[in-house]
């Protein structure tokens, strides 16, 4: 699974809990998008989370 190139956000782990309180492991994937961005005047493809895209931490090319 990809990690955000800006903030490092990746996969989170936890448990599925059934009605009878049995637990099984699961994971939540962060919303990571492959985006063409401007880095030091050149265009580069990065994996960026949507929180960083929305907050303007990345400039799209």
Report on the structure:
This protein is mainly beta. It has one domain (12-55). It is built from 1 helix and 4 strands; from the N terminus they run ββββα. The protein has a two-stranded antiparallel sheet with strand order 1-2. A two-stranded antiparallel sheet has the order 3-4. A hairpin with a 5-residue loop joins β1 and β2. The longest helix has 6 residues, at 50-55. It is rod-shaped. The two termini are 24 Å apart.
Task: Please supply descriptive tags for the structure shown above.
61 residues; mainly beta; two-stranded antiparallel ribbon; 1 helix; 4 strands; 46% strand; rod-shaped
Summarize the structure.
This protein has 61 residues and is mainly beta. Helix content is 10%, strand content 46%. It has one helix at residues 50-55; strands at 12-17, 23-28, 32-39, 42-49.
What is this structure's SSE topology?
Layout: E1 12-17, E2 23-28, E3 32-39, E4 42-49, H1 50-55
Antiparallel strand pairs: 1-2, 3-4
> How does the overall form come out from the CA principal axes?
rod-shaped
- Report how far the terminal alpha carbons are from each other: 24 Å
Number of domains as seen in the coordinates = 1
Q: How are helices and strands ordered from N to C?
A: EEEEH
The chain-level mean pLDDT equals 95
Oligomer: single chain
Annotation, overall tally of beta strands: 4
Major β-sheet strand ordering: 1-2
Largest sheet: 2 strands, antiparallel
Radius of gyration: 16 Å
The number of distinct helices, counting runs of at least 4 residues, comes to: 1
The structure class reads mainly beta
Instruction: Work out the helicity level.
Output: under 10%
